[in-house]
Amino acid sequence: MSSSSTSVGSGPKCVEEGCNDTAEWVCAKCSDDTQPWFLCERHNRKYHKSRNTQNHYRMTWQQYQQEDQFIRLVNHQAQPDEFERDQQENLFFGAALSAEHKDPTLELGNKYHALSVRFQASKTKVEVGMISFIAPTGSGKSLLLRWFVHSGSDSDSSLPLAANHGDLVSCSADLHAYFTHWKIALAPPQKGKRVFPIICIDSEGLRGTDIPKQAGFLGKLWPFKSESSKDRLTKFRARMVEMVYPRLLYMFSDVMLYPFIGSPAEIQSYGQDLLEFSAIASARTVNSAVLPSLCIIFNKRAMQDCHDYLQKEGEKEEASITRATNAWIEQHGDLYDQLKLVFREVKVIHIPNCVEYPREALTALTQLKRLTQRLVSECVAAREAANKIQRQPELFSNMWSMANRLSTHPEDNINLFSLFLNDPEIAAAGAEKWGHLLTYWRALMRHYYGNVDAASAKLRDAVPLLLRNRWGTSDVARGYRDVWERELAALEEEVKLDLRCTATQEFHCAQRGVISVRCELYHRSHLGQPHKSTQTYFTTKPSSAWYTKLYNGQDYVSGPCVWDGAFETSFTAPELAQPISEAYDRNQEPPSPSEYLRALDLALLLKIAKQQPEVADKICLVCVWNSPTVPLVCGHCLCPGCFGKYTNVHPSRCPLCKEQTVRALQEVPKSAGIRVLSLDGGGVRGVIQLVILAQIERLIGLPIAKLFDLIVGTSAGGILALYLTSKTSEVADAKLNSPERGIDLIKSIASDVFGEPTSSVWKFLSLLFGSAYSKYSGEKLSEVLSRNMKESYNKPLRGYASPAPVVAVTMVKVASSSLVVASSASGAMIEGDIGCFTTVGQACMGTSAAPTYFPHVTINDKVYVDGGMRANCPANKAIDIAQSLWPEQTTDMVVSIGTGLCNAQSESGGSILEAIGLIVNWLTDSEDQSRKAEERMQRELPSRPYIRVNVDIDRPYDLDVCDAAAIEAMIVASQYVCERRGICDEIAGRLIAQLLFVNSNGPNIAKQFKFAVVSRLPLERPVESVCEDGDLYYTLQRNDDPEQTAELGSERSSTIDLDHGTYSIAFMLRTKYGAFPLSGFPMTLNVNPSTYTD
């Protein structure tokens, strides 16, 4: 539901007797509280001519509606239950008591998750405007925010709550967010208008000492906590409100609005707030993308006090605001000078009392909104012009990371550029956007801790060698010369933007004497900003009378080190394109593989690979130019060219670490298709999947890991995917874990982890406050998994088993509510892959961290929960991964296995706590997700099967069922399906046939189709033992002609002569389970002698 004051309906009828025309005007003088005086156009002209009514104020019907809606907002009386609903729906960040750590923590609210999902689902890049409301309790900020949200389009239906008249207790706790859309004129040089998403942040009163009304909602839970816990929470909240929220909002807001009830002359009242807020918010933080603007709002003013500062008819836009701002600066220039150093613009506006003068107040608020729109538009334009990296699309993730850091270290020095540059996930995403050379430069910058001199010196030495290695023959190299020159020129410009300012300034500190301070801004952040350092200094209090009164009893005043000036540097960026010309002039030949490896700084590259795995996952560190798609068991990844070229210099050894190594993943032949297995989440109900997989293994005689190229799992399915591809021990001939052993694993989890009954109150607390409250211990689950997975559990996910299929598990990144994967493949090919940071154990714990059941998992300083929150059936994600890893190969088959279906109703007594448990279990319903994946397969690959296997169970077993009889019942039900329905026979038959593929000269040929049938597993299962004489044949059909069938007999290679046309060909294998196509078939053949050659 959206709210908008600008959406109006048709007007009522004219009040004049006998007139049925639609009213277009309202006479304010003749109206009363119960009966507005509506007039049509004809009677409005009549009233305008009458001597008694010609001076009456009349407004249009649309203006009347807007004013009426505004009055309703002003007069709204909040009910107690509304505060609780607002806390649940609109909380952005909030302080909560942690059951796991017994200390207060910062938790994400429901609105944070809702907005993250909303913007992540957007197909286009969305630039979000952020407006923050900061002020002490009782200043009227909630009412202003309420109107801001209501006056937009497609807005939140739940509006901010203002205190009832005369109530000085804060209504909101922590940070609340409200969403709307504004149509805003674009800042020059752009023209036109654009609809911007706007997030309005309501911050708790600046002092944070009083308990807000919404804290009464928290108080209902406090009986579960001790008095000391309450005290810790109160102190933690005060620290967040006074120190953390100001810094956070300053970093990410476009505009900050500060309302104050009173006159500009009362500077000792609001001056302290503004000085303290600006000092806390801006000090110790440098390299913001764009500084926010500040609007000081003198709110609820008497008409006689603010009449001169209201917009007059015929005045230019913002004329009244300019008049009010200039008058305020004239009186309080010293305060303005300090605020202007830390804010992009400082504006002043007067708002009349909304209750007594609603019409004039509405006009002033409209002016305020237009001013805010302009400031937001200019901030967006400034960010785009400066090519800032820390805003979108990682806005929410960055805010959460910063909030977490400041909640534990509120006085940390923050260099935003370095912080976000060093964020591994941003660096990984940047590799795709920046290109390999620029990613290499970023890696050098991080390695040398932002030292441009050291990083550029290393880059200057490396570029000639990298270019020489890439020459090939001079003719090939000359064709790429322009491309390389453009890439290096772009890199030169980026290096210049990364330069730090060298300007210095002396400050007279009252405690330390004269201190010399260097500007800490980078060139990219210095545009439009003064010099700034994270240092602070103490100065004697100014001589202004109001300062003296304000800081009475204080000898010194603390302030940030900020001073006017433009970017300065003495550093000259390297000319990186010059080595290209030098190489041609000298006619240099490429170095030999051994010569090139000797010239590389392997020590540096190994450090980058270890300290920045996200970089080593996106670019091949040996050549820098290509993506690393070949993971090795040593943990490093190479591009295919470097793997083939440099592993021969030292046979079977990694060129980076020189360790004995092989491919970590089983290689998929180029002519073969991809076999995909998808495993749903479901807790203990994962035993159903193991029974089905055990039956498939028995029918074929090979381990599951040998039958699929990609296995993707969520939650329990993710654990099983990793378990079935790891070995029973580290000995050379150790076998892979079997589904039968997996059943024992599930039973261990049920008895050792879920065996201790816990009150469902933890589910209630977790639903309200996030994953700080969990029903079971993550340590116990980790202990059981480690005991069963042996050495594999603590290994890096990349290379934990060899040779193995690609394994991927899904998780939800809490900060952005986005679905991510941790895979054993190279992250260069999979979007959102965090496998380079992850061990097998972390992947198991992250994919199974179901809220209310287990605590969230932190990987590389990011918080993750169970992937089932977004995709409990990961089949669709599995198809995405298959297409990313093997873009030129088709998918043979997708097998998706669920964790049980039940149509029986719950036997719950209906209590609210049990209902909450059922809500969480509802997330495990995967059938809709599976149907979407099946529809996608039918749409994109209609000739390839999607096979869904699930089992009907007699009861809706919970994820944490630990009753042995219940587990046995699920096993029996699964065995019945395996034996009676024949679906496992079909899967087994298809997998046997897909062990064979065909090397051919298709699909585009002139006349002769040449082929050879090959086995994927020549050692374990030779071709002769899989397909005996007479079992292999092919079918051939041209256009709409009848299908032809030909037996191959003992032949495994041959030639088929074909006439011009389009054919559908399928090589088939007869098995005892039926006849099924070989891997990669059916295939379409295009035969045209004039176009193709054989």
Number of strands: 36
Q: Rounded to an integer, what's the Rg over CA atoms?
A: 34 Å
Strand content: 15-25%
**Average of per-residue pLDDT values:** 79
Helix content: 25-40%
Report the biggest beta sheet as strand number plus sense, adding barrel if it closes: 8 strands, mixed
Count of helical segments? Answer: 39
Question: End-to-end span in angstroms?
Answer: 63 Å
Biggest β-sheet: strands ordered side by side in the sheet: 5-4-7-8-6-9-11-12
Category from helices, strands and their pairing: alpha/beta
Low-confidence stretches: 1-9, 213-225, 761-772, 905-924
Tell the overall outline. Answer: globular
Provide tags for this entry.
alpha/beta, 8-stranded mixed β-sheet, 39 helices, 19% strand, globular, disordered N terminus
Give a verbal description of the structure:
The protein has about 1100 residues and is an alpha/beta fold. Strand 22 and strand 23 (about 820-825) form a beta hairpin. The protein starts with about 25 loop residues before the first strand and ends in a 7-residue tail after the last strand. About 45% of the residues are buried. The model is unreliable at about 1-10, about 215-225, about 760-770 and about 905-925 (pLDDT under 50).
Write the layout of secondary structure elements.
Elements (H helix, E strand, L loop, with lengths): L24 E3 L9 E3 L1 H9 L8 E3 H15 L4 H11 E7 L6 E5 L1 H11 L8 E5 L7 H10 L24 E11 L7 E11 L11 H5 L7 H26 L2 E7 L5 H16 L2 E2 L6 E9 L1 H4 L12 H13 L1 H10 L3 E7 L5 H29 L8 H14 L5 E2 H6 L2 H11 L1 H12 L4 H19 L3 H6 L1 H17 L6 E6 L3 E6 L4 H4 L4 E10 L4 H6 L5 E8 L14 H9 L6 H7 L2 H10 L1 H4 L13 E2 L5 E2 L1 H7 L27 E6 L7 H14 L9 E5 L1 H9 L14 H15 L7 H9 L8 H12 L16 E8 L4 E6 L16 H8 L9 E3 L2 E5 L1 H4 L3 H11 L5 E7 L14 H11 L4 H14 L5 E4 L14 H17 L2 H11 L2 E5 L3 E2 L2 E8 L7 H4 L5 E7 L5 E4 L5 E5 L3 E11 L2 E4 L5 E5 L7
Parallel strand pairs: 6-8, 6-9, 9-11, 10-13, 11-12, 20-21, 20-26, 21-22, 26-27, 29-36
Antiparallel strand pairs: 1-2, 1-3, 4-5, 4-7, 7-8, 14-15, 16-17, 18-19, 22-23, 22-25, 24-25, 28-30, 30-33, 31-32, 31-34, 34-35, 34-36
Helix pairs in contact: 7-8, 7-13, 8-11, 10-11, 15-16, 16-17, 27-29, 27-37, 27-38, 28-32, 29-31, 30-35
